[in-house]
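Design a sequence for this backbone.
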């Protein structure tokens, strides 16, 4: 059974061979090197999870070699081999990044558990490294889909501000991807390895939101039996994303303003300020300037938040982006429901492009998911679209009288719903009994 990869660097041939044999019998893949230079050459060409390194080598000190290995290969763990008189060097090596040290001549049974622990740590480090790469790919600006000129301009501005600590205000209709941009700004900036904390300001009442954002001291209110950290503390050194900032109570806005101005706040029930170092990205689907004029949003807070403002265009103003977005969601949901990726017919695409998309990207995503589930063929056709989208494309009968127009409209709705009168009544926004009366009046069977 394969247990892991180990490189032994030691100029004592007999000891090196003995260690190699012991480790090989335990299932480890072992490579040997007699000098530090030879060991580094091996590391250049092959990946090792653990390096067993003598502290006294003919060409380099083991502590210096440990530093080099950890600098070049952070996921590789180093175990230093020391003689009885050089244990202090082993301790020093740990301070410079070594996993542990073991004294030559100790019971050889000790080496196996130690290497196993080092292997487990190396595997964990590797998983974390791969996860960081995946997160970087997932939240990269390249992963944000859009080819329209105005959208590319927004991405270009977001890239520039991501390299700074500047407060950002994202505006745009619901569903335009404000949180996606907030994540990209965070994960492509210098705080990328720290927490990204998102909070929806419209989802919580004033008191609960205050406690969630700033935390509280034990005894601050009934049920507060111990101190609680707030989301600002959780996000320290990282980024906090305040979604739907316009919904925040105006008294809470004053507390947020203090954080922006002084990087500190007072917890509920506390008397001393808490210092934080956090980047703030806020988002809104409202016009905050109008909110300021209506006295529902503080002007001083608005100007603090709007240091760098990005407006995300609605999908109906990004017609070029509809097809590539639809293709992306098509692949995503085909994989999710384990279906071959179907082809979108020209008619299907055309109707997507001419729809108004009040729910923006989020609505398009839902429509594609529904279409993928409904289709029984290798194509997505207009039959797979919701009636609401198809209604946009019905032909008006302006030359007819009002009764004829109503009759024609009801017939079209019944065609769309395949005769389902309950669904037809819903789309017509009338009661079911009213629909039956009109069917009788217009002699529609």
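Sequence:
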């Amino acid at each position: 059974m394969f247990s892991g990869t180990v490189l032994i660097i030691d100029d004592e041939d007999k000891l090196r061979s003995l260690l190699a044999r012991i480790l090989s019998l335990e299932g480890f893949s072992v490579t040997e090197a007699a000098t530090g230079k030879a060991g580094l050459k091996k590391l250049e060409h092959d990946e090792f999870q653990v390096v067993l390194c003598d502290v006294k080598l003919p060409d380099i000190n083991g502590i210096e070699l440990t530093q080099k290995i950890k600098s070049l290969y952070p996921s590789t763990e180093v175990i230093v081999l020391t003689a009885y008189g050089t244990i202090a060097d082993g301790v020093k090596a740990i301070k410079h990044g070594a996993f542990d040290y073991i004294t030559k001549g100790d019971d050889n049974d000790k080496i196996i558990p130690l290497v196993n622990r080092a292997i487990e740590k190396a595997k964990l480090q590797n998983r974390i490294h791969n996860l960081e790469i995946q997160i970087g790919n997932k939240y990269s600006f390249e992963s944000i889909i859009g080819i329209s000129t105005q959208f590319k301009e927004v991405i270009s501005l977001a890239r520039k501000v991501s390299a700074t600590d500047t407060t950002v205000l994202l505006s745009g209709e619901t569903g335009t991807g404000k949180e996606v941009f907030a994540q990209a700004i965070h994960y492509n900036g210098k705080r990328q390895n720290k927490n990204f904390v998102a909070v929806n300001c419209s989802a919580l009442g004033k008191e609960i939101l205050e406690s969630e954002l700033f935390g509280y001291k034990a005894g601050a209110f009934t049920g507060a039996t111990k101190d609680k950290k707030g989301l600002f503390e959780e996000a320290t050194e990282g980024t906090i994303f305040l979604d739907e900032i316009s919904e925040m109570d105006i008294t809470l806005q004053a507390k947020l303003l203090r954080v922006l101005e002084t990087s500190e706040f007072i917890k509920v029930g506390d008397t001393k300020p808490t210092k934080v170092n956090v980047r703030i990205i806020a988002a809104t689907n409202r016009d905050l300037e109008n909110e300021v004029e209506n006295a529902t949003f503080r002007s001083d807070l608005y100007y603090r938040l709007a240091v760098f403002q990005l407006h995300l265009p609605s999908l109906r103003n990004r017609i070029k982006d509809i097809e590539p977005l639809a293709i992306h969601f098509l692949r995503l949901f085909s994989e999710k429901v384990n279906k071959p990726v179907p082809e979108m017919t020209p008619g299907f695409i055309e109707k997507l492009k001419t729809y108004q998309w009040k729910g923006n990207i989020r609505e398009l995503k839902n429509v594609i998911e529904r279409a993928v589930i409904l289709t029984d063929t290798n194509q997505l056709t207009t039959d797979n679209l919701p009636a609401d989208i198809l209604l946009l494309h019905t032909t008006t009968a302006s030359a007819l009288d009002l009764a004829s127009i109503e009759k024609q409209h009801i017939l079209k709705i019944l065609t769309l719903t395949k005769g389902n009168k309950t669904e037809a009544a819903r789309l017509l926004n009338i009661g079911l009994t009213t629909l039956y009366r009109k069917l009788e009046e217009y002699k529609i069977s």
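Confidence is low (pLDDT under 50) at residues 394-400.
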